[in-house]
Input
Amino acid sequence: MDILSGTRTIHGQLFCGWTHHRELSSLAETRAPAVAPFKLNRMYKPGDLVLGGLFEIHLSSVFPDLFFTSEQQDPICYGMAQTMAFAVTEINRKPSLLPHVTLGYSFYDTCAVLGVGFRAALSLVSGREEQIHVDESCVGSPPVLGVVGDGSSAHNIAISSVLGLYRVPQVRAMLQILRQFDWTWAGLLYSDDAYGHDAAQIFQSELAQSGWGCLAYVEVLPWDSDPAELQRIVSVMKTSTARVVVVIEYGIRTVKLLDEVVEQKVTGLQWIADVSFIEQSNLQTPGFMPYLSTLGIAVRRGEIPGLRDFLLKVHPDNDLDNSHENIMVKQFWENTFQCKFAPLPPEWVIAGGRVCTGHEDLGTAESTLLDVSNLRPEYNVYKAVYALVYYLEKINFTTSFGDQVLFDKNSDALPICDVMNWVWLPDGSTKVHNVGVFKTSASAGEELILDEDRIFWNFETKKPPRSVCSESCSPGTRVARRKGEPVCCFDCIACSEGEISNETDSTECTSCPEDFWSNLQRDHCVPKVVEFLSYHEALGISLTTTSLLGTLMCAIVLGVFIYHRDTPMVRANNSELSFQLLMSLKLCFLCSLLFIGRPRLWTCQLRHAAFGISFVLCVSCILVKTMVVLAVFKASKPGGADIMKFFGAIQQRGTVLALTSVQVAICIAWLVSASPTPHKNVQYHSDKIVYECDVGSTVGFAVLLGYIGLLALLSFVLAFMARNLPDNFNEAKFITFSMLIFCAVWIAFIPAYISSPGKYADVVEVFAILASSFGLLVPLFGPKCYLMLLKPERNTKKSIMGRGATKT
Output
């Protein structure tokens, strides 16, 4: 049912010669030849302004042949239309509402028959009740201000083609319920009539525009309840993954459908329907109980103070409302008291039926007309009458029941509906109760208010079902549409490394910024781990300790040499070059510390320069020491006395300085042309930033290493040549051994350095520095310290000059 159904201001116009009228007449002519028309059940009250009404007000009907194939008889419709009459009477008693204006009414009983409803609608807009000739000029009663439709959406949608546009508020309420419970996957069943087709079209259009939900299937309920077709429809419902079924149907065809549901034992479905489904008593049976969990949309219930007293005054002879052609009041009276007014039909006399006296007491009668405790369509008729008193654009008032009445810019009534729910009681009976309201206001828009604690869910879990084609994609994944399926059906694909999605049902993953990476859940970007050879990790601590140990050893050896500087052992081994060598080795050990810790500009620039200069200084001292050994040997030969003048102290210092200056020049040129700088390398690990020193110029680094290698190779060759000299010059053997270690370490360094990523390149370089430094320190100074500290008796000139000194 609908609220304020089909209300429309006509502004006093008489609708003559409408295309809709001609189409309807043409339709009638094609069906059968025209015959004498039938009369419409009508209630009329004159006034300066007249309100029209079309109501399905009968209690029971015997319908005439509406296809005009035989002579027509009057439709016999029982019912009531007193609510509209009461509202008009109430308005006329309030001079402040319509001063100096009397309001009348003219409404017809549609008898729940579409043909009758069409004829009544045309009678209202033309102003004539008798034959409608669309080509005539319109004459008749005062203009109809507006029309209030009945409670049947099915009929109102069809009749609205004559009277104006029509909207279905139940559809909006159903969509809000689906959204409320996150039901994005539902089936749709609708009746094969104007109401079903139009409402289903609106439902699908609204659903598509919202982009929120999808329909798993759409099925039309056949008029003839064909068993095979119903069996097929229920099979579709059974096999579908949708757990929610939306039913748009006016009538009782749903009973046959539910019979098939029971036959196929289809359980676990949540049904959403309008009040015509909810209030069908033949559905509220224990047999359907396991199969129905139902929410329905009903016309707003309200209270109308004074209506019952007004209804008790209804009487066929009562002239209170000045009604004319008041057939329906008599029909109601006859139906209520099971009697007939004179003149009596012959068949009634033969059957011995009662004669209506007009003195019957309505107060003692059992009639639904007098039950004003559950007014739904009547309450909305009451609101509609008040609404039509004013211009629609200006209406905004609140009823005594607390409902706001106003219209949107298209003059459509803003709807308000009750949400109903079936409750199955322990004794197997059912009760329909209110669990919420759907309303629309100009300020807040559409609003669904549900008391979810009151809703009876007919499932084992006693909770709302889950009805989705695909579960939502959690953060960290993205939606991947399935080809050829609705948009609600999709797969969830995990975001790739370095990408995230931090919302549910994200359609794509976004890449993290350069310095960030996705976490394991792929829902947040976290700063990348910055990797470098740190003082705080085990590897860094080990190398730092080794470096400091080597530095300490150099200091100890230097102290021993200084302490024994006047002994033959120190003086015989060129003490000045030995001191320079120890100092350069100490620098070699210390320069390795520049490769540990977070790279900075000054450490990147200094580390290779310090490393290159320190090692050149060290190797230069060894080279000069080896050359001095060879010169001394040559000087001991006949005719070689003059050679020593080229290897005096000044020449030795000058040679070391000159050789070291070349490396200094190389380092300066490198730093000036392409200085090493800190660099964030993201090529090695996608989730890490390797913080390293970019050498700047590979050529500069290669020249630096090449110069050290050249001096080391030259020292090795000279020492190798001097290895077989007399025993008192056997230091050449230790130089040969140490230089062999040095060269081996740096030859192995080159491929290891190139193949080591990130901080491990620094580890390789530090290891090479330490290994080569220890390779020079231990062979060159270990035996001498051993003699000076543990064998002092052999630290004499005689022992050193004698042949017994070979082992020293």
In short: The two ends are 118 Å apart (CA to CA). The longest helix spans residues 601-635. The chain has 22 helices and 27 strands.
